[in-house]
């Protein structure tokens, strides 16, 4: 179980508890957090679940795979610390992580 | 007078509308009515991972169990709405109950087109639209059973791919002279026919199904060309039809879908509509479109909710779709209808990664990208911009994807 905080581009915070093994996209969609659409349901095909990950948390995430990297490379408004949260799976390690959402997904 | 917002339909557009109504600040009562016994769920996985048994209901269900209660939404699953009384602003359900409304959102989706041939009601004849359909199909999934798929569109091919991997003997019958004929260039059709044949699927084109044989259960499919295809079960995938009957009976404007404007308003100012059941004016293509996609459902759900919350969020997007078959991720941007030139980037004959760019008088209108995420992402931007592209630059893979537009 991990406590995850999603911060909308206007600063509104949503903190939810996510069971281990569930993607941070799926958890956000299920709770109705604005700014995470996940059109493709987690197939890494749409890039509508982009988040910015603070530097201190980056080492705790599993490595980025080619598909995700490519999607991000071509995503408008992506940055060095962007990830697609359908590819981030909850674990105890991520307890307390704070993710910021881009304005483009508003 | 009631200020309740009622949502008829419980699919992707409806679930999005609930979320967006609250996010946009609507605090009044919301009631949602769906005729299936389930809360809103994702349909795309039904013909893919869900059919394959790789994921279960908990993974396709769109929202968490407490989402609707926490959002203060009254849910009526398993409840069919039978009438909209616009004059008195109320709806009736099949149980004979009535509910007043201030505003309505119609998100009734679509249903399968049925094949009305002799034997249509035999056991073993299936369609694939909802969870219960999939459960019924899965009961036939045993090694060595014979399946015929009627229709070589996306649903038919996705089902064929899952079944072939499961060890089922699969034959796909298609009326046109190639699969996916309605939506892609022959290059893409040939590619998918090759991939399926390599996986052991038999594909027969130019076949008109004329009947289903059997006394109680189906034993064969017969064609107008006089051939017989023995089988244990059939899955028919020949398209979907928008659910517009309630809107027609209520006197709303309907023409190939419920007619809405860019704010998802119907011809009645108190009624919005969203998703598969609508026809909207598309700014990018300059004509009305009725789309069958998750993206359309989500975005129109947002737009309809914003409109009813007193805001303006026009829907003006390029459609996109996807299809998973075997190891192939097909991502589609736009609609290729009316294209004048199809330009290929990559090698569809000897590889499993390429993209086809559809140009209409030089302007990019659509892209089919097979295992080509960069082309797909770039195409989203270029199609929205109505970019004019040079075919030579598209073909030349020494030019990076980002530099295609020059």
List the helices and strands and how they pair.
The complex is a heterodimer of chains A (106) and B (406).
Chain A: E1 2-7, E2 13-18, H1 24-30, E3 50-52, H2 55-58, H3 66-73, E4 82-84, E5 98-100
Parallel strand pairs in A: 1-5
Antiparallel strand pairs in A: 1-2, 3-4
Chain B: E1 5-8, H1 12-23, E2 30-34, H2 57-60, H3 67-70, E3 73-77, E4 81-85, E5 90-93, E6 98-100, E7 103-106, E8 110-112, E9 125-127, H4 131-138, E10 146-150, H5 154-165, E11 169-174, H6 186-198, E12 202-205, E13 209-213, E14 220-223, E15 228-230, E16 233-236, E17 240-242, H7 245-249, E18 258-259, E19 271-273, E20 278-282, E21 287-289, H8 294-308, E22 320-325, E23 328-334, E24 341-346, E25 354-360, E26 363-370, H9 373-384, H10 391-395
Helix pairs in contact in B: 1-8
For the structure shown, list the relevant keywords.
heterodimer, A: 106 residues, alpha+beta, 3-stranded mixed sheet, 5 strands, 18% helix, globular, B: 406 residues, alpha/beta, 5-stranded parallel sheet
SS strand fraction of chain A? 15-25%
Measured by residues with Cβ under 8 Å of the partner chain's Cβ, the largest interface is: A-B, 21 and 31 residues
**Alpha carbon gap, first and last residue of chain B:** 58 Å
Low-confidence stretches of chain A: none
Q: State the end-to-end CA separation of chain A.
A: 27 Å
- Average pLDDT of chain B works out at 96
Gyration radius of chain B, to the nearest Å?
22 Å
Total DSSP helices of chain A: 3
The share of residues in helices of chain A is: 10-25%
Portion of residues within helices of chain B? 10-25%
Specify the structural class of chain A. alpha+beta
Largest sheet of chain B: 5 strands, parallel
Series of H and E elements of chain A: EEHEHHEE
Give the oligomeric state: heterodimer
Biggest sheet of chain A, strands in spatial order? 2-1-5
Give the percentage of residues in beta strands of chain B: 25-35%
Strand arrangement within the widest β-sheet of chain B reads: 3-2-1-7-19
Q: What is the 3D form of chain A?
A: globular
* Total number of strands of chain A: 5
What class do helices, strands and sheet pairing of chain B give? alpha/beta
């Amino acid at each position: 179980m991990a406590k995850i905080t999603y911060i909308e581009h206007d600063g509104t915070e949503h903190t939810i508890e996510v069971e281990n093994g569930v993607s941070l996209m799926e958890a956000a969609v299920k709770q109705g957090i604005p700014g995470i659409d996940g059109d493709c349901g987690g197939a890494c095909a749409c890039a509508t679940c982009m988040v910015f990950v603070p530097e201190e948390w980056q080492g705790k995430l599993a490595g980025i795979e080619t598909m995700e990297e490519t999607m991000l490379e071509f995503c408008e408004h992506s940055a060095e610390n962007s990830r697609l949260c359908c590819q981030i799976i909850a674990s105890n390690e991520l307890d307390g992580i704070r993710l910021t959402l881009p304005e483009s997904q508003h | 007078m009631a200020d309740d917002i009622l949502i008829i339909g419980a699919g992707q557009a409806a679930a999005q509308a609930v979320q967006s109504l609250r996010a946009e600040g609507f605090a009044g009562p919301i009631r949602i009515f769906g005729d299936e016994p389930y809360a809103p769920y994702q349909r795309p996985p039904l013909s893919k991972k869900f059919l394959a048994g790789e994921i279960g209901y908990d993974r396709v269900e769109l929202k968490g169990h407490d989402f609707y209660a926490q959002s203060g939404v009254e849910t009526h699953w398993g409840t069919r709405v039978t009438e909209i009384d616009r004059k008195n602003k109320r709806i009736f359900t099949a149980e004979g109950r009535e509910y007043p409304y201030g505003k309505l959102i119609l998100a009734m989706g679509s249903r399968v087109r049925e094949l009305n041939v002799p034997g249509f009601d035999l056991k073993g004849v299936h369609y694939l639209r909802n969870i219960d359909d999939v459960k019924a199909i899965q009961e036939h999934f045993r090694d060595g059973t014979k399946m015929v798929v009627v229709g070589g569109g996306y649903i038919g091919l996705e089902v064929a791919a899952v079944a072939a991997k499961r060890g089922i003997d699969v034959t796909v019958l298609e009326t046109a002279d190639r699969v996916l004929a309605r939506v892609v260039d022959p290059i893409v059709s040939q590619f998918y026919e090759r991939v399926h044949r390599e996986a052991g699927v038999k594909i027969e084109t130019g076949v008109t199904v004329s009947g289903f044989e059997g006394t109680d259960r189906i034993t064969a499919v017969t064609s107008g060309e006089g051939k017989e295809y023995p089988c244990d079960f059939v899955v028919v995938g020949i398209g979907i039809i928008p659910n517009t009957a309630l809107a027609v009976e209520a006197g709303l404007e309907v023409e190939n879908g419920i007619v809405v404007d860019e704010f998802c308003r119907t011809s009645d100012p108190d009624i919005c509509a969203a998703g598969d059941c609508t026809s909207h004016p598309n700014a990018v293509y300059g004509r009305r479109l009725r789309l069958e996609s998750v993206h359309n459902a989500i975005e129109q759900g947002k737009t309809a909710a914003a409109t009813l919350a007193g805001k303006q969020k026009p829907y003006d997007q390029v459609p996109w779709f996807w299809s998973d078959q075997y190891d192939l991720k097909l991502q589609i941007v736009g609609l290729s209808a009316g294209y004048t030139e199809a330009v290929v980037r990559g090698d569809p004959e000897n590889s499993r990664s390429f993209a086809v760019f559809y140009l209409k008088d030089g302007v990019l209108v659509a892209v089919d990208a097979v295992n080509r995420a960069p082309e797909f992402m770039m195409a989203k931007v270029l199609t929205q911009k109505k970019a004019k592209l040079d075919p030579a630059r598209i073909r030349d893979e020494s030019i990076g994807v980002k530099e295609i537009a020059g």
